[in-house]
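One-letter codes give the sequence; the fold follows as tokens. An example follows:
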Amino acid sequence: MLPECEALWHLSCSSKHRYLLKHPLLTSFLMLKWHNIRFFYFINVFIYMLAVSVLTTYMLLLNTNSELAADTVRFMNVLWYVLWILVITLFVRELFQLGIAPLRYLLSLENYVELVMLGCTSVVLVQWQQAQSWRHLAAISVLLAWMEALLLLGRHPKLSTFVTMFTTVSNTFLRLLVWYSLLVVGFALSFYLLFRSDSEEEAAFSTVSQSLLKVSAMMTGELEFGDLPFDGYPVTSRAVFLAFLFLITIVLLALLSGVAVSDIQAIQNHAEIIGYVNRVELISYMESMLLGDPFHFLAHWPTLRWIRRCPSFNPVGKMVRRQPLRTIFRAARVVLFHQCLPNKTFTAYPNQKTTPVSITVGQQILMVQKTCSCHSTFRMSDSILQSASQRIQEKQRSDSSVDILAKIEKLDTMVTTLHDQNLKLIQLLQNSLGNKPSD
């Protein structure tokens, strides 16, 4: 059993060729692959969301300020053991991913988010008797857990476009803010020098760090004009404040908003292709992971050349590729052509309602071989069948047009031949009349 989506992954990485993923042949293939592999995705989501729910409940109960009843304490003890089991399960999952594709794992920021979340959770579980001292770690673990839940759910084909919008806009904002942060730092230092005071009532600009936080908050529109101390340097402080109001609050925020709208519009214009690209990414990753990455697809994933020159190793892949572990992981389920479609073909009959051996496609019927034993039903998207039908009709119209043109050319040839023969007959008649003797 070998992966089936690596070629599509390379196709999706090419901006010039990824539009080919919209072809009904590829979209139907991805639909069937997703139907096979979604079981493992939902299992992963279920385990992680269970861990997030238990983690959130335990952290909230652990850091409550009120006295807990005896039943609540016993419930927390149960949650403590359950949370440890889930944390260990997630640690094993991370080690499995690290063993299959070390380079890809180490170069993914999302994996570090998961590791920090698991580390903070483990510290809080160990130090549960001193919960107040480790409350900051509890806050970090809960925040990172829900952030990872957003990214994990966003891998679903129907939600991937929205996560792409979120990550694209975030990356664009970060790139712009890295450049424009020089202006923000300049205003923060200027406000610190103008508004610095030792009184507690005006502590917003008492230190450089406080001034940076205050200016960052002022960027969002929280100006608090009446609370700013303009009395020390009335002209200079007001001039600097007006410059901040124009350059940061009006110009910079308008620029960021315009860039965000532009990115979202571009993503929406290519939402269908982006959805297919994300589906290929998810399927190819899970497929290679469950099959032990036999082609070293995950090991050679980094696009940076100097990183790809590093020696790649796959310590867990050889064990996963063995038959016992493949049986445990049910790896045959993710391969479409191994069991479901051994002849690599299927036929759709849109107008047929019932058939002895069939796969349901919405209200249509998708016929497959009788050897198919992986699923009893498929639900193919109607848009795929409509797209395939349109392409067939276009091809038929094109073929009919070609036939008509061929017939016209044939008729034109026949007419030309007849015209030439008529000219020859006329010439013969003229010659015969010219040679007839006169009386």
User: Anything to note?
Assistant: The CA atoms of residues 65 and 324 lie 51 Å apart.
